[in-house]
Design goal:
Chain lengths: 265, 153
């Protein structure tokens, strides 16, 4: 059970950042994961009063505040239209509606959890995170950074034309995925993102131009084999490394086939 | 200690709490005993309450964070619940009854958001409410019968 000495609802990012320098102080997002640990927290820093619970849409991008819930993502028509329902597909089986009403995008991405459906799907997009005070970095770079005391403020999804498809294998609905897979064609390149390996999501690009000649069953299979060969999988109680490797191949191939069609759409 | 005020079941309740008091403990200490402690790992839905009309898990919400918000438990929504719980009981789907308060609260949230859900929409919305008696099909039949009865009226 978590133990908290002091609760502070902050009024600014500066205040949150200052408090977050304390070794035993923690930013609280949805508190879903934090609550399950046995952490002793000195000050719980609540950023829910900073107006970071909205999805702002401009002509160029979606700016998703750190306190936006997974349910908001699931129900956002424009974001889901832009991503061919990939965001909705990535969150719809995460526990239940009540959980998704509380879990936040900030908490989900900040943890860079291996099981994360969200890290997997957003890594397939032209996406960035805004950190305080660091600034804006690509989500891929962020996913490889070590955790520090900065604050995740926004997730930014550029409206770069994209074809994207998401799927995950679960042993049982509402459980963590055994393997998650997002494939996309964005910025002139095909990418496959494999999450729940069970390590954190990894991006594999089509560096060998396997899909340059177009998507056919043959090229999709070849690319899927390339992806499976270029990821490391592991074993846990949800699945073995060999099984995950096979799932990566199958899900990548299916997703690429679904992308199909004209790459320049 | 922190002084908080929550609008609970239509009444303003103020109290002094510890920083790590969870909403479930605050509610139970104010006689909302329908809110039950189940898994405490945010998986079972037993502790579901409505905060600002949104279903949430009170086992994972700090009471301090609920300050200034409106919270409803089953104690405050008896009339709304009574419209359909009889249909669940008719199916024998309440069984041991342990999951019922959370299940009923989330069903209220479902029907407010989507008054005419399909069976798949009901299953998807209630996926976060676990029943240890595995009475899911009976619960679904009960809700379906209730919705059918509305159409027949």
């Amino acid at each position: 059970m978590i133990s908290i000495q002091k609760y502070e609802k902050v009024q600014s990012l500066e205040q949150a950042f200052e408090l977050n320098q304390g070794k035993k102080n923690r930013i609280i997002g949805g508190m879903m994961w934090l609550n399950m640990g046995h952490t002793k927290v000195n000050t719980a820093i609540d950023i829910s009063g900073l107006g970071l619970n909205t999805i702002e849409e401009t002509d160029e991008e979606f700016i998703i505040g750190a306190m936006v819930t997974l349910r908001q993502l699931e129900q956002h028509e424009s974001l889901n239209s832009f991503t061919s329902d990939s965001v909705k597909n990535a969150v719809k089986d995460i526990v239940g509606v009540q959980f998704r009403n509380m879990a936040t995008i900030g908490g989900s991405l900040w943890g860079r959890f291996g099981f994360s459906d969200l890290l997997t799907v957003f890594l397939a997009m032209d996406s960035y995170v805004e950190l305080y005070p660091t600034g804006i970095v690509s989500l891929k770079e962020f996913s490889e950074m070590k955790r520090d005391n900065s604050i995740l403020v926004n997730l930014i999804v550029k409206k770069t034309p994209i074809k994207i498809c998401y799927s995950a294998m679960r042993a049982q609905r509402t459980d963590f995925p055994v393997l998650a897979c997002a494939t996309s064609f964005v910025n002139g390149e095909y990418r496959a993102v494999i999450g729940a390996r069970p390590a954190k999501a990894k991006v594999v690009l089509d560096n060998e131009g396997i899909l340059d000649s177009g998507i056919t069953e043959e090229t999709a299979t070849k690319f899927a084999e390339y992806v499976a060969a270029n990821i490391v999988t592991g074993s846990n109680n949800r699945g073995g490394a060999k099984y995950r490797k096979h799932l990566a191949l199958v899900l990548t191939m299916r997703n690429i086939m679904k992308l199909g069609g004209d790459r320049n759409d | 200690m922190i002084e908080i005020t929550i609008n609970l079941n239509g009444k303003k309740i103020s109290d002094r709490i510890e920083a790590d008091t969870l909403l479930i403990d605050f509610l139970r200490s104010h006689n909302c005993l329908s809110v039950k402690r189940g898994c405490e790992t945010t998986n079972c839905g037993l502790c579901t309450v409505l905060m600002d009309d949104t279903p949430i898990l009170s086992c994972s919400m700090l009471a301090a964070r609920a300050a200034g918000h409106t919270v409803y438990t089953l104690e405050g929504l008896q009339e709304e619940a009574s419209s359909f719980v009889g249909f669940i009981a008719d199916q024998g789907a309440d069984q041991c009854g342990f999951c019922n308060p959370g299940f009923v609260m989330n069903t209220i949230a479902l029907l407010r958001e989507n008054p005419d859900p399909t069976d798949d929409e009901i299953r998807a919305f209630l996926a976060g409410n676990l029943c240890r008696c595995s009475g899911y099909e009976g619960q679904l039949r009960g809700i379906r019968n209730y919705l059918n009865s509305l159409k027949e009226q």
